[in-house]
Predict the structure.
Amino acid sequence: MNNWELQQFIGKDNLTVSEAMQKIDTNSYGILFLTDGNGKIFGCITDGDIRRFLLAGGKMDSMSVDAANKSPRVAHSIEEARQLYHKKNYVVIPLVDENEKIVDVYLGETGDNTRKERNSLNIPVVINAGGKGTRLDPFTRVLPKPLIPVGDLPIIEHIMKEYQSYNCNEFHVIVNYKKDLMKAYFADNENDYNISWYDEEEPLGTGGGLSLLRGKFKDTFFFANCDALLTANYESMVKFHKENGNVITMICAYKNINIPYGVVEMGLNGAIEDMKEKPLMSFLTNTGIYIVEPEVIDDIEDGVSIGFPDIVEMERQKGKRVAVFPVSENDWMDMGQLPELEKMRVKMYGE
């Protein structure tokens, strides 16, 4: 591994959580090793560490060391790295010299399957596919948004295959705009998906169509817009949802944006209270993917158009438990935008 590649796995001790998250995204292995001023490894931080830190009340501008594991596993030889890698199913093992400085990282041998087997969730999936997809105009004048191709498959099929990797094979699809094209595509699909269709007579928004599924479920289900692909750990999401007794868990992605200007905060009579040069702004954005309990459907009126975020607020106002599960922005692709479609194609199929 050359030095540039190695540096993708190494961060300084003065990184913020937000900066650590961005660097983790660049190496795509979900981990960053932290070093002190002398280059000695003293900790590691994963996307899971960051999530637990944020859920416990931590902030994106906190120091990454506050969220880090201070006892990282290291190897002093390639043989030791191989033993650790296979014995404990680690994804990355740092190799260090006699001064505990990282000289390389072990990622497994060529041909190793470093991806852990996904446990079966076997949870129903509801996909809201009834919208007109105006953000993808003019393509959606010809095809419904879910059938817009990304590489070899349409948007909705990419989404369904991700759920199937967790053995979630029961699909309930709410349709309206160009619904006959949707049904015709899957009628001829060689993969023979298990789909139940629900026709909206009138547009019911991003949440109102759930009323068509009243009485269909006795337990937890996924609910997703047809333009959101998530590659995060679904098992962790469901575990969080159930352990906290949520009726709705909203999956949200942290977005990090560098403001290309100096930002000034103004006080009384124009006094300058603070100045930041090209600051990094971090915020949570709704991915349009939720984990839901069936009791929520009982609170939705028949035939009434309503957005699902409004349903979330309605449940919150009733005193029911609704919560956020944060993921990295690298784990979410909003396929309702043309630039994102190309990014997704490159990510999944390469240049």
